[in-house]
Design goal:
Aldehyde Dehydrogenase, Chain A, domain 1, Aldehyde Dehydrogenase, Chain A, domain 2, 2 domains, 5-stranded parallel beta sheet, 20% strand, globular
Amino acid sequence: MILFHGEILENKEQDRILKLLYEDCLTTLNQKPKLTIKQVIHACDAVYQKAISGEYDEIAIPLLKMADISYERFLSMAKLFSKEGLEYKCKIELGQDYENPVALLNGTKRYRYPLGILFHIAAGNVDGLPAYSVVEGLLAGNINILKLPTGDSGLSIRLLKELIDVEPAIKDYVYVFDVPSTEINTLQIFADISDGVVVWGGDVAVEAAKKMTGITTKLISWGHKLSFAYATQSATDEQLYELAMHICATNQVLCSSCQGIFFDTDSLEELDHFAKRFLEIFKKANANSHTLDIGMCGKNTIRIYNEQLENPKKKIYTADGVSVFVEEDSELALSMLFRNVWIKRLKKEDIISNLKQHKNHLQTCGLLCNKEEKEYLSHLLASAGVVRITNGDMDRMFAGEAHDGVYPLQEYSRIVEVD
């Protein structure tokens, strides 16, 4: 489906629309008055009010069930679209004077302008994320061209259409296309007319976007990241249970999902004892979580069985639908996903040297320790490149948080100074 001038059209209209797209964007850039932050926030808050009153339940609940996300978490995520949340986000990212930046000391006036036209290449690991990416572009005042991810559920185009219905001025600032990644020529058209390309995805997606992006176009990448937990000897059962619940809730498919746990020891015996301890807690969390899809359970069983055959000396503890792999190395790695974690040794003295090699791939660390250890360990993790340090609830989201250590509204804006 295509969203064009606020209307949902069939994909067969794509060639006709592509011929009009650039001139349409130039017309919007020429027009006054411009779309304001207040208009965008008003529209988003209206959609948020509908969401919390249950008006989207017929589409939201099946998606939540598929993604194993609780309704309470859905409402928490929806709050990011609220007036309160978005106004706070703008003040944090753009400054308290974001609507009228104060002049410089010499009297030079400052204005915040959008980059102009943003081309969003969205990822499909979270329903609604493509729409949220566009909302951020709108908050900065940009025209937004969105390429939907393969297999998109339709939630993003529904949300954006709702925004336009509330605030018709948004219709000239949003274009949505259901274009496959193999349709390179079309994607190149989008990239050529854009001032910035926003890409969500792994290294392959970012590299492909780089090839499309000319030297006069800004590339903004929110690439796939690796996240993990770090536990010391003082980690409590309550902290470990919170982490285990997070792992079950996300099934380890998010950038912020815990792939495994580094334990502060150089002893394999202590590591093995910790792994057995965590397994028991993991089993309890799994029993209190939504049941994993039966097909995925079967796939995991086969993969774990193959791993045991290929590496008979490796310690793999598995029970009740979860598993813990005790590894002898200290490498940060992707897990088997879907409630399978690795546990490895990593002394605090080696945190920076071990993790620094992964620099731009690091995102969240769930730090499980006592209060006395937290400040020092947080410093080590941040120095290694980690950009989010949380408790066990590693996927929690708050208004005003940065994306991978950067504020997107700043990335999507520019400051114009006039004497």
